[in-house]
Amino acid sequence: MKIKKRFFLKNKKVKEIKKELGNFQTIIPKKSQVELVKIEDYPDILLIDGKPLLMQIEGKTIPTLHAMINEDIQEKYATVDMGAINFVIKGADIMSPGIVDADENIEPGDTIVIIEETHHKPLAIGISLITGKEMVDNNKGKAIENLHYVGDSIWELNL
């Protein structure tokens, strides 16, 4: 792992990021230090008070699983059944048949948290390809593009 750049963000940029995060803006508490780390072969990582809680992929800022692990996820989520868990934590995209519940307000392109149905713990972060209602109703096809999952290189990242 080779760090190319590492610097603190100005308040103006932090406010822009919080606005972009929408529902997830509580990840950045007031008066916290936000540091951008550019690492070779990784997405840009945003450290909030030294913890890797956000990442930037294709110009979009999304939370990491470290940020979501202790959150009570009430919106922008999809719940997968026990049979899908093994595939999700190996990086597979999420298919509609494996989804048992989803936030009905999800629109294509939204950042969503994939949680497992028994303990309601986050397994992955992804981008929705269809609406939340379609995720539950469809019985075939891809529903969510998996961007970050438990056990991947970002989950294991130590800075």
Describe the structure.
The longest helix is centred in the first third of the chain and has 11 residues, at 11-21. The protein folds into 2 domains: 3-68, Nuclear Transport Factor 2, Chain: A, CATH 3.10.450; 77-149, Archaeosine Trna-guanine Transglycosylase, Chain: A, domain 4 (Roll), CATH 2.30.130. It is of the alpha+beta class and 159 residues long. It has helices at residues 11-21, 65-68, 82-88, 132-137, and strands spanning 3-8, 34-39, 44-48, 51-57, 60-63, 77-80, 94-95, 99-102, 111-116, 122-128, 142-149. Strand 2 and strand 3 (44-48) form a beta hairpin. The model has no long low-confidence stretch (mean pLDDT 93). It is globular, with a radius of gyration of 16 Å. The strands form 2 sheets. The protein has a 6-stranded mixed sheet with strand order 7-11-10-9-6-8.
